[in-house]
Amino acid sequence: MRERRVLALSGSLREGSHNTALLRAAGKLAPSGVSITPWDGLADVPMYHADLDTAAPPEPVRALRHEIANADALLLATPEYNASVPAVLKNAIDWASTAADASRLAGKPIAILGASPGALGTARAQLALRQILAAVGAEVVAKPEVIVFHAHERFDERGELADGLTRTLLAGLLAALADRVGPKLSEHDVLQTADRE
C-alpha cells in the first residue's frame, strides 16, 4: 500500500511553540503507512493580495500550493489569538483556496488540533477554523477533538508530549484522518500507536 502523506502546518511561528511540538508528537504517533510532513514556510507567505493572485503568484505561495496539492491530507495546529485563528494560518488558507486554476483545499481531508496555556485551550480558534474550512469545501475530521489546555503542563522539559490522554486523543485523530485516505484502522492499532514511545 502506498504511504499516505499528511502535510502538517503550525499556525504559530514562535520558537518553542506548543502547537509545533504537537505536530512533532503527531509524527511519532502516526499510524503505519502514514507520514507526517511538517512545512515551516508559512512565515514567508505574503499577506493575501488579489492583484498577486495570478498564474504566476509569489514563490512562497506557489510552494505552499504545491505542498498542499501533493499531500493526501492536512494536519493543522492552531493556537488561539483573541478568541480566533492566527492571521498566518488564515492567510495560508486564503491563498490555498483561491488559486486561479483550482482550490487546493476543496475535498481535501483535514484534521485540526491546537494547544494553549489557557484554561479553554483552543476551543474557540478551532470552531472558527472549522467554519473557515467548511466554507472552502474541505473535508474536516469531526472527532476526536484535540484541544490541549494548560499546554505548558502537557510537555516535558525537552518539549515532548508527556500527557497520556492527549497522546491517546492525538493518535485517535490521526487514525480518523488516515481513514479518510485509506483503509480503516482498528481500535487496537490506535491504542498501540498511542502507547508507542
TrEMBL record:
Domain NADPH-dependent FMN reductase-like: residue ranges: 5-152
InterPro entries according to UniProt: Flavoprotein-like_sf, FMN_Rdtase-like_dom, NAD(P)H-dep_reductase
Domain of life: Bacteria
Source species of the chain: Amycolatopsis minnesotensis
Protein name in UniProt: NAD(P)H-dependent FMN reductase
